[in-house]
Model the fold of this input.
Amino acid sequence: MDNILVIGSSGQIGSELVMALRKIYGNEHVFATDIKQPTKEIRESGPFQILDVLDFKNLMHFVVRYKITQIYNLAAVLSGNAEKIPLQAWDINMKALMNTLEVARQSDAKKLFWPSSIAVFGPTTPRYNTPQLTVMEPNTVYGISKLAGERWGEYYYRRYNVDFRSVRYPGLISYKTEPGGGTTDYAVEIFYDALAKGTYQCFLKEDTALPMMFMDDAIENTIKLMEVDSSRLTHRSAYNMAGISFDPKQLAEEIKKHIPAFTITYKPDFRQPIAESWPASIDDSVSQQDWGLKTTYDLPKMTKVMLEKIREKQKK
Ligand code: AKB
Done:
């Protein structure tokens, strides 16, 4: 039986991934950890412990003590925040990854998931339908750390047999836990403001298209990648994930179908050049072939669910 450790379980991805994994593997086999308190449902449904991934000794101790066989390491400083504290963000992002790679090498927790991002691409990358293998010259701290991380992951796979698996997440859209410090965060904030204030001031220009994905699709596909037979994986860096591409204006138009009085204004800030350096759309055909990536949410379906669920939350 697998015992799974999720690092960063209180964050946007972690808080939903833990619950999905607990459904499959059983509550007591999925260990949630973070330096922040988790959601109520995580705390009440299974084990949670405060654990700092930067503390190698404690991490190793935890993995041995609970006989962990798989690790999901989701701890990261996202793109916007990383630009404010470049050296610290580099240290945190890289140390968090290197600690889990080393723990995987030295223990029985050989299977390791670590999220990469569309941020690995840069201004010299083909911007539309970006292929799996292409020019990668990221110009953000976060992107540089994600690209370095992909290279290290593949290195540990080849050199030490660590079963490293990763995807290049697009912007993730969810209603349970809000993201923090990313460039794609506008696509979540907009729903809260649309419902609470009827208006939103966007920090990106109206025509800045980016790839995005609804969280349910992201979680389902992440677990699918981790469960597929290792022999099917032809890439050990990170796999492209396309999701749906849209710009702020298109999202605002979709929201207006539900809230006709909704208005949006644009005040681009330091995140605008970050967004412009990333792809507008992604080709994920290699992921579809290798491990069966499949998504079910388009822009109208996602918008409807986001508005319904956030409305319910705001009523409580
Ligand atoms: C961010 O905006 O930093 C993240 C990402 C695309 O990795 N959501």
Summary: The first strand starts at residue 4 and ends at 7.
